[in-house]
Structure formats: C-alpha cells, structure tokens
Amino acid sequence: ADICFTSSTVPKMIVDISTQSRVISYGACLTQMSLFILFACMDNTLLTVMAYDRFVAICYPLHYAVIMNPRLCIFLLLLSVFLGLLNSLVHYLTTLQVTCFKDVEIASFFCDPSQLLDLSCSDTLIKNIVPCVLGTLFGFFPMSGIIFSYYKIVFATLKIPSSGGRYKAFSTCGSHLSVVCLFYGTGLGTYLGSIASYSPRKGMVASLMYTVV
To answer: Which residue numbers delimit the G-protein coupled receptors family 1 profile domain (predicted)?
Structure first.
C-alpha cells in the first residue's frame, strides 16, 4: 500500500521535473486522483488495524492468537481494500459531476482531490459537503480508533511493574506511532489548516511529507 501510494504521485512529479513541463491531461488527473485516494485510504485503514493489533497484543496478550486469528486478519485486509475502493469511487464520481472549472492550475504537485474540487465554479455544495462527509467517515473515525487504542495501551503499560516490561511494550509501538504522527500530522496540517493562514507553498511541503517521506 505504501509503495503504490507513493507511486501514484512521484513518477509524474519526476517526469515534470525532468521535462520542465507541469501539464497533465484531465483523464490522467482523474486516474492519479483515484489511485491516490485508493491507497491513501488503504494506508489509513491499515494503520488503524495495526493500532488495534498492538492494543490486543499488549492489553490481552494471552488471548492474542485467538482474537487476531487468520480469518479476522483476512477480513480486516479485505475491509481496507473495500473502503479504499469505495472512497476512491465516490471522489471519482463527485469530480465527474463538476462541469465548470474557474481555473486550470492546481496549487499542488499532484491532482489533490481537495484542490481539484476547489477549482469548481458550479456547485458549492459538492465541494463543501462531500469532503466533510468523506473526511469524517474515512479520516475522523479511523483516527479516533487509533487514539482509543493507544489510550488503552498507555494505561495497560503503566500497570506493568517492571521498567523493562514497560519499555518492551512501548518499543513495539514506536515505529507505528511515528508513522501515524507523520501521516496524520502533515495530513491534518494540509487539510484542516485555516484558509486565512493557508499558503500553497506550505501546503505543498506538507503534502510532500505525507505522500513521499
């Protein structure tokens, strides 16, 4: 998911840099946007699944093999793919409804869905309501699941009497937590920053962090 997520934007960016051309066709833009959303949503869901996995491993270690059985793991994987496809399809169909663009220049190095909808001059309902609904379903709820998992993990870890045991428990979460902070931190900085303080340059730097770094 990470490789495909990065590959949906980086190759085109490299071509643009090498050819000194920043042009992309409408069809290619829709394709890039759809692939970007598909793998971003899969990444998002898998990070939530991984947080749940760590929650079970630390809070219910003796029941881990029973709870996280192969059937549940396959179901969670397929759910991640399904939610990614659903989110991508809704964005794709929403963008197809836009028939009028007030500008043809996107303030980003890839076809960012939010930037693309901002170019619409036809229906303000689409570009305001749809991102909020999808952001809540595919952003807020997964992030809430991660926060809740780590809330339980912290309290369970603090109950461990030995410092070595606490360190071992926290160390299993370190890499996952760093990715979550980088992914969500830069993503939220891009999409939830106030319009008054938002600048295209800062937005592109933040986008570069969570799409490439």
So the answer is: 1-213
